[in-house]
Design goal:
Radius of gyration: 42 Å
Number of strands: 12
Distance between the termini: 135 Å
Number of helices: 6
Largest sheet: 6 strands, antiparallel, barrel
Shape: elongated
Strand content: 25-35%
Helix content: 25-40%
Amino acid sequence: MPSPRANLAFALILAALLALLPRPGLRFVTYFHGPASFLLTPVQQPAHMLAVWLAGTERLANAAGAPTDVARLEANLQEARLELLQSRGEADNLRTLVRDLSRGMELNPTLSVKQITAPVIGFGSDLSGGLISVRAGKQEGVDTNAVVVVKGVYLVGRVQKVDERTCSVLPITDPAFARMFKSQKFSGVIMLDDQRRGPAWQLESIEDGKLIGKVWETKASDAAAGAAGERPTILPDMLVRLADDKWPASAQMLVIGRIERVEPIANDRLVVTIRPLQDIAHVSEVMIRVADTAPATPAAAANTDKGGKSKP
């Protein structure tokens, strides 16, 4: 039996001899075309389809791995849209804060206070109530019963305990807040619009972080009713501000919240539920309002005589 090397050598010699033959002498090779095509045709089509599929897969892989310029432009456009929406939201928040601060100053123009900004470092066991720990204390000028706000206008609560570097704040949403006044009521005023004051509101209880109290007629509300003597209509979403002489001047006309529900009771009275505008569970920074006791500037002192009167 001839070896593989002998067969290979024989094939090479035969190929060389066939290459030397003239063209007419190679006509006999065409007789092998039919049998060869018969053997190769069944696998030709599947092989072609496999090659096409592999080429398409490679193109898809390249497209996924390397995004086109259009895809990059779309991604950049989407990012720019998100940044624009974020900037608009921040601008709206600033406009709202400036408006609220301006209204507070207009309602209490003689107020002079200093606001100490401090981060919240801890909450009670219940985020809707419980003492709030704040990183500001005696060293910053904080004292007991100081008023605590958010964004300068929204009432949060009062300082209950002060240490050197920290203090504890009792929020107005805590049920204990209603009990701390005992026989004295925590009072506010319902705003009929940005400037007009309506009837008084007094706290009775706190449920689920919402303040519930009765509405009482006052001289201010009678004046607001007009010459016809009509009682003002109390509606949901009206703003309620603090108006309580038991609180310091720095707290007057701060925002307590908005009316969520109005319910009539006996003797033609109303019970109003107020929802604070600031969620205590999501407050990360507060402001502690203290009396502004800054000394007079040299220029002001120079224009003041010994009796405390301004020089002409």
